[in-house]
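protien #1 (seq + structre)
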Amino acid sequence: MLSRTIRAGRLSPLRRSAFVPVVRRTVTTDAASSHADKESVPEEDDKYFTVNLSDESFETYDLDPPPYSLDVTKAELKKMYYDMVSIRRMEMAADRLYKEKKIRGFCHLSTGQEAVAAGIEHAISKDDSVITAYRCHGFALMRGGTVRSIIGELLGRREGIAHGKGGSMHMFTKGFYGGNGIVGAQVPVGAGLAFADKYLGRSNATICLYGDGASNQGQVFEAYNMAKLWNLPVLFGCENNKYGMGTAANRAAALTDYYKRGQYIPGLKVNGMDVLAVKAAVQYCKQYALAGNGPLVLEYVTYRYGGHSMSDPGTTYRTREEIQRMRSTNDPIAGLKQKLLDWEVVTEEELKAIDKDARKYVDDEVAEAEKMPPPEPTPQILFEDIYVRGSEPDFMRGRIPDENYYYSKGE
């Protein structure tokens, strides 16, 4: 009877009754989805307590999920909040300066995506490496750059983080390798950073990020292949903010489950609007990679409030109502703020003080950046830092070795 049922292309009533419907959970973007018992929150700032994550924080591909609990301190939670407020305030300053025509060229802001940069930084060490695309200001700040140096860079000033020559597309600091302007090109470079760590025997991981718009680039899959072949300690991560420039993800990608794109590499989808879920995921995945298991592909489900860049209003391919709904119900800063108050980690007055301190720090740094002098229009500045010291060729087209110049703070 079963064979007849199969040939007929349908199941008999008896066979159908044996099937139990499976409810597939999907990752939420609720920024306030974590839970903690406020009675368990200690008085001390540096004492750990347990936060329970939503059971919709992760989806996995060929991988056991991370623990759905996270040990944190009150001090760390307050620092996470401070970090996200600082990133947003800095991006708002960049928005204003661009509209005032003080920042020129390209400028890509990450307003709404702060939980990804802050959560990653709180899960790794300063010895680990981070590389990303050009929506990078928050990552540069988390990796140790100052607001002054980042805004100064956007303004094209001499004391900017890349001496005013890179702008929004190229920012570097110790442990942070950009800010890369070519779509997807940072992914194989990230694999190379991980290869260097493995080759030199260092117990470090590389966090390599790209957007959903870059996820179909061939070099991404080439990097996957080499990373898995050599079991490199690299966490590939797609910041899925739902739109590649002005194109919705489902109009550009046949498979929008980006965490499954590694095929032979396990994957993890994460609530990228909950800074605690991001921290838990990256902490777990770093341990996995450093245990010799090789790379992972993560997908941070997030959202950008603004357009792709400052030249994009961001409202021609999505509705204002959609943006407002995400702002009002899924905001990463508001979500953590709610939890800090619910768990009595801080009082309203303490939270206002943290807000005030973060905003004052950013505003003061931005004011200093605006006072920075532009670079002098000299050949020495134009031709500096073309070569790494000691690697200069004997002959250069139109130049001589004596005309190699290098940036010096003492000049």
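ok now protien #2
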Amino acid sequence: MWISGRPGVSMSRIAIVFCSLSFIFLIWSYGIPHYSASSRYPGPGEKVVDPEEYTPGQFFARTTTTTESSFGAATGIPKPRPETSGEEDPEILEPTPTPVVIPPAVPSTKSCLTAKGADDIMVVLKTSATEIYDKLPEHLLTLFQCTPHYAIFSDLDGVVAGHKVYDALENITAETRAKNKEFQYYDKIQEYGAEGQQLADLKGEGTKNLDKWKFLPMVYRAYRMQPYAKFFVFIEADTSLSWTNLLQWTTRLDSRIPIYAGAPSNIGSIRFAQRGGGLLISNAAAKLYATAYDQKYVGKWENRTATECCGDVMVAIALAEAHVEFYSAFPLLQGETPATLDWTKRHWCAPVVSWHHMSPNEIDILWNFQQAWTKKNGWQTPYLIKNAFSEFVSPRLSPSRSNWDNLSQDHKITRPADDEALGEGTAWYKLSDADKNSTLSFDYCKATCASYADCLQWRYKTGECALSKVIKLGRRVTGENAESKSGWFVERIEKLTRSWEPCEEPSWSFNQ
């Protein structure tokens, strides 16, 4: 039978063509996976995120739950099971397909949000409502643009520029609040906050005394917020954190080991991580701490806090009772600024992860330096203390600088004000003529420094000459100290720092 008068087209041939097309359609629809960023199947324990609703850097905007395949298995923590109505979990037949990514024609700098290890870190900043508008904005503009997981704790619950701020003190027991007078200031902060008053007017010792009560609840709540983070880093509002160096450091550590580390300090027999340099706590340590907290906080630790000077000391006490040992992370985590740090051979080849006592301006300057560093060197090359020296200190050293205190202090010579004290039998009498003359002028002080082979810098003010064999930058001084004048032997310093080279490998080590 012929159709449409065209030879060669029969019903059987039409059937064959139709079947072939149907088979191709089925293969295309079900046999070949299609990939797109918006239509990818969610993996186990993963919640689909609407790209339009996700705000990078905002803690609660990130809805993806870390799966066992990333670091849940590595830490030994079981994968969370979704709540069900009694039915068995659906069987996952095939792994989630990986999207096809076409590389850009021109390589681009890797985002700080997606750099290796970024998703494993929880950064926690502690501040006060009385200073939050002075110190928090700089972190929102810099560090928190790069941290997928972070939280801000204060003594007043609220929102700052769209960022949630948690009240670390809201669960302190009523009995403790009644017994400790500093909580009168806490109540005043709540009152001012409710009335929209100027919280900065409450600055003072009373509000500072509240600070120690924030630490233990803050560490506990941070772990409960992000229990699958590999590491928790706790900083102050005046701490500058190097994001690239922190990531490179923590990727070298094992979060399954209980680690509590920081810049070491001592009060009596208690060795602890000084808060300003930052506290690093591993997942294993945080888990042990949370278990002990549930058992001991209300009955023991909260009362102990009242008797201790500081919150960072209480953290050390609590972690010790949770069987977590302290590790010194100096100089990676340290409590100085580029102006006050001792620039020595001991530090020269170590990466620097934190600085303390930093103004918002200084935090911004360091952040811009770090951004330029990663753009030039990538995210796998740390900047070392020697690089910070070349950037922030070396260009500012000179033979003479007025209105400046370079913190020379190894050998201080002070001319007695009382002429009778200049006589025999006094400490002044035992000094050499050169040392005595050093108190007469800046040039005499410089000459005395030159007479010592290891003297690198000096500072003079009327009747006083201070010498140092350690390099320090110092700061401009005003008021009654404005007469201070400082100098450095630049050639000696250049020769000394050259002898500390080369740095074959960055020194990431820390110890107990």
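DSSP finds 15 helices and 19 strands in the chain.
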